[in-house]
Amino acid sequence: MVHLRTTTVGFPRTGPKREMKMALEKYWGKKITESELLEVSDKVALQSLQDQEAAGVSLIGVGDHTLYDHVLDWSERFGLTCKRVREAKLTGLEAYFTQARGRDGIPALDMTKYFDSNYHYMVPEV
Fold it and tell me: What is the model's pTM?
């Protein structure tokens, strides 16, 4: 008998009804708080794990859920906040989203295409 192991790479991270996208837009529009955004994020991340487990995925990846950009997430985990955001003394989500989207006087990180696909990611500044 052959035993196959399965895994997922890049499981969708927006939620089954695009909950993350809607929550982000509300957060940026100051219609929900940071804690409400993080609550939606936690629910979507948990649901993704539960969906994969229910589907019988044997090796479920970690670190693929994101608020905005997975490369930016890993840059932050490794302490690679860009210099202009550090100098502005921004922290937390304010620093994260300033790198992602910019703000007055602080440009966002560059984005680049992943090979020749339509997928883009934030380019860390080391």
Answer: 0.86
98: nearest Cα among 72, 78, 74: 72
CB 12, CB 48: distance < 8 Å: yes
Which position has the higher pLDDT, 11 or 55?
Answer: 55
Distance between CA atoms of residues 101 and 47, nearest Å: 27
